[in-house]
Protein 1
Amino acid sequence: MKKNESSTLLLEIIRRNILSTVNEFRNNTLYLVSENITPVELGEIIGGEIVVVSGNAKEKESVQHLLENILLFADFKTNPNRPAQGVVIDSYLHPQTNSQVSELLIQDGELRVKDTIFLNGKFAQVKMLFSISGQKITTARPSDIVQIVGLNISAELGDRFLVINDEKTVAKIENELINYWEKKKKLIPPPPSEKKNVNLVLSADSQNSLEALAELARKKNTPNFNFSIVYATVGNLNSFALDLTKITNSTVLIFGYQPPPKQIEILKDHNLPFFSSKIIYEIGEKLDEIIIISSQQEVEEVEEVVGTALVKVVFEFSKGNIAGCQVTSGKISRNKRVYVLQGKEENKVFSGEIKSLESNKVEKNEVSAGQECGIVLKGFDNFQE
């Protein structure tokens, strides 16, 4: 690495990691450490591992001491001949392309284009790699700060990542994650019984915007009303976020960017309430509106029958039976709750969701009266003709 490149990198690391405050607290370093560093990463002055150097930037006080401490880490060795691992230092949406940009610090190993990154329980391939100065590169080594465009994984400052290129290992981890999320979906806590509650899914253009949005929602809470943040992400909502929105009956708030038409279409198709704005006070007004509407509503569910179907034949398969049906009235919609009635007295034997809905071997969102279709239900296959 050239001298000027090394100096630029050093300044960049200092800029992103320095702990600063107003001069009134300069003699209370212990208070600053406890307020700004998590218990897991305590400063060395109170038994941790992080170097804490107090000083005054304007008066250039203790700058030499700071540089000496930084140079102590120059002797630490890394292995560049292994898959990369490191930490996220920033995440935001590109203002022109609306693509998610993730900034990573490589702490060990070498990161290459087409590597598979594991971050926050998700895998993604590195398609484009840029240096901190914006130059397109193909590899990055320890101590490099890189920008990855289009990773599409929600990440926060301090989240760790590693590269896993073995396909069998990736497949095994993905299967374990699917089982984990399926179990987690069933463990979503119910809202407080005596307190009105509205679930929120938050999306913003940067981590700072996301934190501001979450803080705004928390400040709106009262002794009689509560906003519960069930999911928060930087950038466009992924399939998991949309599924979680449906399961928890959440309202989606999007701040700081214009969501793409495809995402708006998905939200509308699934009847998911959402609000988008680049102005924070408009988000605040929307939250106030939600509080008023929710406080006026009586908690009462009224079910309406939108369609019925008769099971004509049952196709048995190892992965789940398929009910060959004739739609007798209305329409059968994939995103509606279904009931299975059996016997002369039409006893209710199942209540749940449609896993698959097909007509003429084509996947459908809905099938109208008079048409035939194949139905697979989630958690039920004991169909009767």
Protein 2
Amino acid sequence: MAKASEKPTFTEASNALEDTLNRLKSGNTPLEESLELFEQGVAHLKVCQSLLNGAKGKVEALVKTLGDDGQFVTEAFDEDA
């Protein structure tokens, strides 16, 4: 996993969330530890959501130009579409 000063990657955060959920689902965790795991899970989920929102903003659709050169241009991702 990423160092404390580095933001984890989506894969790291997603894997950590999955591990946390599996530990919670095991049913063998004391209440206090379950609450800590729940808080960690929420933190991992927030990281995943933040990274997905950032990626969504960067998505560009390739649109073929109407010109004769047949080149592609990029167009900002339309969130309302």
